[in-house]
């Protein structure tokens, strides 16, 4: 049963610290997405990649967020420096066409 | 930007009842997807729709792609307690998905 995996599942950090979240997409999927979910904003698309190339990162605060896919089995989302307003659940999703399959998420708390 | 209006925001029903929820858009979508999210988990894909008028079932769930391509609905028949969760519609005009705000479903045994 192929699944998207994300690490860590939970992260508590202090304001100003760097945070790195990792995602292993489902093998064979060529598109990877990063979303952020909050009560106020719902699910927001931060960035996505196709065949490891970044296609759209317009939803991401560029000054502190960065997303990369160093290889087909790993996607990373980095926040530096983190701020309390970054507290949210971050989801990675992967897919082949229009269907996206989500990971379990990383719950980030920035104090 | 493009937005989806999902309704109702929440529902509290009795076990065994049927449920209906829908999403509307101001623009035409090429794809409609329905997801369910349990607490502490990521959304799980329930049904994907690709053609206007398409009606697709997955067990007790049935979803339809509106003929105007601006709406979709999801029906759950004979609800059970494990149907509890948040249901999201998602539409794809081009490229990326846009998600509705979700319908929170509670089922009373």
Short account of what is shown:
The complex is a heterodimer of chains A (111) and B (109). Chain A has 111 residues and is mainly β.
What's the N-to-C terminus distance of chain A?
36 Å
Order of helices and strands of chain B: EEEEEEEEEEE
As a percent range, the share of helical residues of chain A equals under 10%
| Poorly predicted segments of chain B | none
Low-confidence stretches of chain A: none
Question: Can you tell me about this structure?
Answer:
The complex is a heterodimer of chains A (111) and B (109). Chain A is an all-beta fold. Chain A is 0% helix and 57% strand. Chain A is built from no helices and 11 strands. Chain A has strands spanning 5-7, 10-13, 19-24, 31-38, 42-50, 53-56, 65-71, 74-79, 88-95, 100-102, 106-110. In chain A, strands 2, 4, 5, 6, 9, 10 and 11 form a 7-stranded mixed beta sheet that branches. The termini of chain A are far apart. The model of chain A has no long low-confidence stretch (mean pLDDT 94). Helices cover 0% and strands 55% of the residues of chain B. Chain B has strands at 4-7, 10-14, 19-25, 31-37, 44-49, 55-58, 61-65, 71-76, 85-92, 98-99, 103-108. Chain B is mostly beta strands and 109 residues long. In chain B, the strands form 2 sheets. In chain B, strands 2, 4, 5, 9, 10 and 11 form a 6-stranded mixed beta sheet that branches. In chain B, strands 1-3-8-7-6 form a 5-stranded antiparallel beta sheet, with no helix packed on it. The N and C termini of chain B lie far apart (40 Å). Chains A and B meet through strand 5 and strand 10 of A and strand 4 and strand 5 of B.
């Amino acid at each position: 049963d192929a699944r998207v995996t994300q690490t860590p599942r939970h992260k508590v950090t202090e304001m100003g610290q760097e945070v790195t979240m990792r995602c292993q997409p489902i093998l064979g999927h060529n598109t990877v997405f990063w979303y952020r979910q909050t009560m106020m904003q719902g699910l927001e698309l931060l960035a996505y990649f196709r065949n490891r190339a970044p296609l759209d990162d317009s939803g991401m605060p560029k000054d502190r967020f960065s997303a990369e896919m160093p290889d087909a089995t790993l996607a990373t989302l980095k926040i530096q420096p983190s701020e309390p307003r970054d507290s949210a659940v971050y989801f990675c999703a992967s897919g082949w066409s229009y269907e996206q399959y989500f990971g379990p998420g990383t719950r980030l708390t920035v104090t | 930007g493009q937005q989806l209006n999902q309704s109702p925001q929440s529902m509290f029903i009795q076990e065994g009842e049927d449920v209906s929820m829908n999403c509307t858009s101001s623009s035409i979508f090429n794809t409609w997807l329905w997801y369910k999210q349990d607490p502490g988990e990521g959304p799980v894909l329930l049904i994907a729709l690709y053609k206007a008028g398409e009606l697709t079932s997955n067990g007790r769930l049935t979803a339809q792609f509106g003929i105007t391509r601006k709406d979709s609905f999801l029906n759950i028949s004979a609800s059970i307690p494990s149907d509890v969760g948040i249901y999201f519609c998602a539409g794809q005009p081009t490229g990326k998905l846009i998600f509705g705000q979700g319908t929170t479903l509670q089922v009373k045994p």
